[in-house]
Amino acid sequence: MMTSKGIKKPDKAGEHLRPYKLSHQVVCITGINFQRQSLIGYAELSINPLRSDLRKIKINSKQCRIYRICINDSLECQFTYSDPSLEVCQGDSKQRNLDYFTSSHQSAVSSVDTDQGNGELTIKVPHEATDFIAELKPFRLSVDFSLEKPQGGIQFVVPEGEGTLADRGAHMFTYGTANSSRLWFPCVDSYSETCTWKLEFTVDSTMTAVSCGDLLEVVYTSDLRKKTFHYFVGVPTSAPNIALAVGPFEILVDPNMHEVTHFCLPQLMPMLKCSTAFLHQAFEFYEELLSARYPYSCYKQVFVDEAYREVTPYATMSILSTNLLHSKQIVDQTPVTRRLMASAVACQFFGCFIAMQSWSDAWLPAGIAEYLTWSYVKKAFGNNEYRYWIYKDQQEVCSFESTFGLITLDSSAEKETSGDLYFSTRHPFTTLERYKSAYKKKAHLVMRMLDLRVGRELLLQVFNKLLSLATIAAQQKFQNQAWHNLLLSTSSFLKSITTVTGKDIQPFLDQWVTQGGFTKFHGSFVFNRKRNTVELELRQEPTAKGARKYMGPLTVTVQELDGTFHHKMQIEENLTKHDIICHSKSRRHKKKKIPLCTGEEVDMDLNFMDPDSPVLWIRIDPEMSILRQATFEQPDYQWQYMLRYERDVTAQTAAIYSLAQYATPQTRLALTDTIENDQCFYRVRMEAAMCLAKVANEMVSTWAGPPAMITIFRKMFGSNSCPNIVKQNSFQNLQAYYLQKTIPVAMATLRNIHNLCPQEVFKFLLDLFKYNDNSTNKFSDNYYRSALILALANTVTPAVTIGALSGSMVTADMLSSDMKLLLEEVTRYTNLEKLLPCYRLVVTVNCLKCIRVLQKNGHLPNDPTLFRSYASYGQYVDVRLTALDALVDYTRVDGNADELSWLLDIVEKDPDPYVRHEVLRMLCDNPPFRKADNSPLASASLVDRMWKLMNCKTSHDSRLRCDLIDLYHVLFGRSKPALTHSADAPLTQKVIDTATSPGGWERETKAFSAVGGGDHGYSYAAVHEAMDVAQEDRFSPQPPAAQPGSPLMSEEMIDIEVGAMEVVVEPVKEEEQAQSLTRIDISIGHDTHGYTDHGASIREEEEKDKHAEQEGEGQVSTMDAQEGGKMPEKGIPEDDEDGGRFDEARYATPVKVVDSDSSIEGDGPPLKVKTTARSVLPSSFLKIAMASKQQPSKDSGDSRPRFGSERRHEDPHKFDIFDFDSDEEQRPKPALFTASAAPPVAAATPSEEKHKHHKEKKKKKKKKHKHKHKHERHEKHGSRHEKQQSSESSTHNSPFTD
């Protein structure tokens, strides 16, 4: 049962947050339609009430259409449906910070969590049923439902083409994270609620339905067009472990275990036989290891296309990806497939048969299943492979916790949610996918640590006891608490450990389970020659992110001349010092066989070591008995000895990583000897090859001889008669095969003193392509050829050409000879793949990677078109993901908003859920920008789009929603982005390219009307809506700090530049909030200081406009505006004594003022537009001013276009604001148009130009009226007018002044 703060666990066994228990459930799907992607059926739950006053029954159901609910087939029930997770932040969309979203997300999930007595579907028990419920008699609850075009939980795969659905391989299957069965049938979607099941599925006669349990019978209809599969699950199982797959599957009964059946899509049977041939060995291994039989009577593996994960285990079956299938000729995929299939079988024991009690106990079945899986890997692939991956997993877990935050395995014991995480970990629906991955690895590491503490045999006895109790419980009929042994919790596991071993592991659980973190050590030593002791110093860093203070035992291993000695010490403080007495005496330059920890004795050259010290090397915690990250300081010769003579692969790997910092001839020799040593583990030799390339680059000025590893490769793989020509491929020796793939990739990273790939290396790689011969090899060489393509990509360095320097388009003539040869090889292999596709198209994958590297380094035009074509739906998934990864990188490098929008379209609309997830993962790993970046991509529209995706568009795929939360955090952080808006404040702005428009503008800006709401006197919501532009919108950052969404922007003023336009948002003062009419003021001017006086009363503005109309100054009335009257032209005033307030100079430019779906048009330079919107709502308001920026002179280095006589139009029918009489020596004055919520007004026609001379005759009268009007305003505004006059002085220095 899931617990959280304020929720108590049941004190007694009978207490339960759900007032009932399930004993049995029937799921019957009577029809499945692939064309409409729909299904219809009913579910019947056998309920045993626990309370006599049961009046409401809450169950889980999501996206299902409920038709009818009955009790015992006769009593129809009323029901209500409520799912807060459909829209996480309901009613308050002004919040845009992750902390608010996380809190709302957790609340929404908890409100439908059946472990807390909740659910989406609330059923009211009819009055007629109260009698037998009061007697606690069981009853049946039936629910009729249908599902059409599900957004999650079910995947319909219907390939296009001719023929029937079966011919095309159409199939469907269920998927989802934990607790996702509610997405396709009504149920109690909890691991803690187990029951028996009867499953019935009616499908077409050409289809096969595969589900959990034993197949009882298959019944055909009378017309033989349909058939019904009847399954029964006799072992109590929870709803999340129920699954379904339907398709034209080919069926293979395992020849070694008839209880095991495999299903695959048509034409994949040969690969299915090869891939599953080993599976009986995994069953035998687990049964022998656990001393217990497989808990079910059958097991089924179904391989499907577009799988949600590579492997998803369910009770008695697993759904796997078709991509795991392989033939006998494939080497690289075999170990991956075997490990994943073995993992699915291990989950049948712990995860399906014995499930977790609650999400806080998920670490137990996950950790035990992984423990069993890696035990099989150890047996099948060897101890070195096992220890290497344990070392890698430990590094990944420590890296995750030091980067993202603590991983707490049992969150129920956590007093408060970890403050360093930006998501909740108390439910699977709120937990990030990469957190779950690290969580699973940490659970396995902790289980392995427990193995080292209590002993392997005792731990296996504990597992056997748990399985025995569960088997006995599964055989019993339903009784309250009869099946509790089928559920595993931390408390029950602790009890079993104590019972079997007699040891108290509570301190261990407190250290590693109920709290997160790892131990971070930094060690160093000094040898005391007089005392013959090693003075060891270990320092912990508990203040580092993700680190915890460790208190307990720690093993330190010292390799001396006389052997290996283990020393156990107790760690109590952050700084621990120990004196370790050496058992050996120093030998000065004497060669003698040195005994190692394995018992063997080897000859060592001791000339390079300290003659006074008998210490060869020191290791901290060699068995990895604690979760730690250890760095140790010791001389380079000790790391070299460790690499040469230590037999533990983890020590050798650590030595290689340390030797990368010591670029010396001795390091070079040690790495070379390791690569050539056939007795060394192949993964260590691969790591040594990569490290040698780094060391060679550091030693480039002193390197002697041929480039690194060429001689080694020719010696190992060259022909006997001609070493320069590689032998025919023979991959019989798998260690040599992996090394043959790795050495060219490592060599390609070599660089000369000019930081270019050496010519000899490049020619060597091309020869590998030329002489590659796989005709006599029984294994495929596609992975080898793919590695050679990757090696070519590693040789690419930035282009230095005339075209690259000049910024012109890259052409084929600009390519160097080497790049032409490289491009020819890549093109040839890419085209060859279309004719002869290889396994999983691995060659095409690396060809696309190479093309992207060429683009990034300037050798090819930076064009995403190729990758878009390969990323489209219908391409093979690996190719799609590679192309999408290139597009993600293109978006980051070029800052292309169109590509980012296209990627988000993939996230929203792509049919493959795995691809949608991977795109978001790529964006998180390689984001287009980060919070601290001042990127033009950080627009308000992006914030709004991602928020909507998180909030309400991914409610049926919790993994996708959590991925979006992760990306949102990477891009914008936890706090609210600088520019957001609410949905209740519609404000639109559209900026489109109008370079060819008659007005000559580079942008066309639509007018906008706003009604804001808030508590700050202005609405960020309306601003955000205003900048929610379409794909053609392009923001030109001038300066970059003024971009929307920038964390540097204050909340008092937000500047967004659109070309040469500036949008300024300012708070409306308190005295203006009382106004109840909407008004739009649009000022057209050239200076940046001519803002409207915000302190003036709106009623004063009304009186001024009425006075101007009475004077007959040509003001268009509101009625005239509504009738679409033309605006008469006015002359230009001589001066501007009002500080840029040109409200008397009317209609110098034909201007059309329209509603939010139209535009502002005019001729001349960019205009200053100020829009003031006041709402009748007693909340916040805003003012938006669009002002043309002052254009600096050419001497200032600014390349933006200047405005003046050179921009005058040549068309006599076009009116320019600079087109005035030559005798006017004053600078040009802009016009002002004021209207009250003005509807569209028609622009002046060219014929009105004839009246220009007549209108200019009234110039003196207009000037007189202007001075009179300004005098009245001076008296009203007082000191404010003086401030405006002072600002005018700076305006006269504007470059717009003639």
From TrEMBL:
Residues 1251-1280 have a biased composition (Basic residues). Pfam families: Peptidase_M1, TAF2_3rd, TPR_TAF2_C. Residues 636-985 form the Transcription initiation factor TFIID subunit 2 TPR repeats domain. It is found in: Nucleus. Residues 1100-1110, 1126-1142, 1195-1217 have a biased composition (Basic and acidic residues). InterPro entries: Aminopeptidase_N-like_N_sf (IPR042097), ARM-like (IPR011989), ARM-type_fold (IPR016024), Ig-like_TAF2 (IPR057345), Peptidase_M1_dom (IPR014782), Peptidase_M4/M1_CTD_sf (IPR027268), TAF2 (IPR037813), TPR_TAF2_C (IPR057991). Keywords: Nucleus, Transcription, Transcription regulation. Residues 517-635 form the Transcription initiation factor TFIID subunit 2 Ig-like domain. Residues 1100-1142, 1153-1172, 1183-1298 are annotated as: Disordered. Residues 280-512 form the Peptidase M1 membrane alanine aminopeptidase domain. Residues 1286-1298 have a biased composition (Polar residues). Residues 1234-1246 have a biased composition (Low complexity). Belongs to the TAF2 family. This is Transcription initiation factor TFIID subunit 2. It comes from Priapulus caudatus (Priapulid worm). The gene is LOC106811735.
